[in-house]
Amino acid sequence: MKIEDHLRNISESLEVIEECVEKGLQERQRNLAFNVSVTATEMLEVFLYKLNLINPGTILKHEWFTSIKKAGEKLPFDFEDKNEIISLLNKIEAKRNYLCYGKQQDVEDIIDFLDSFNKIKKLFESKGLKWN
């Protein structure tokens, strides 16, 4: 997929995430979880494309980040802030399925989930990546 397509997808998901926050975290936890997970993973794809560490046809799968070990195996190369990025993606994926498929979670848990996403988003933005 072209970087422009990724950026369009990221922008769309960021809008959905904002709508979920506005409508209510608990009321929209499922949509929030799906979009946070896919967006964080897609942001990493764009980052790695721009560093020429993966080819444009490479697809990263969110489930790789359910395990830090597995993520390291799937991304065996080094890049700046790799451990922090993988750790944040792991925190997101650890809660994703509970939010997507489970009962309504406490708002504090959803806020913690969203905080991990905001941290990774700010990290990528600090590296010059723009989504709009």
Overview of this structure, please?
The chain has 132 residues and is mainly alpha-helical. The longest helix has 22 residues. It is globular, with a radius of gyration of 14 Å.
Compact summary:
The chain has 132 residues and is mainly α.
Keywords:
132 residues, mainly alpha, 5 helices, 68% helix
Fold topology:
Blueprint (H helix, E strand, L loop, with lengths): L2 H21 L5 H22 L17 H7 L7 H20 L5 H20 L6
Number of domains: 1
Structural class: mainly alpha
Average per-residue pLDDT, rounded, comes to: 94
The number of helical runs is: 5
How many angstroms does the end-to-end distance come to?
17 Å
Strand portion, in percent?
Answer: under 5%
For the secondary structure, the number of strands is: 0
> Globular, elongated, flat, extended or rod-shaped: what is the shape?
globular
Question: Helix proportion of residues, in percent?
Answer: 55-70%
SSE run: HHHHH
Give me the Rg, rounded.
14 Å
Report low-confidence residues grouped into runs of 5 or more.
none
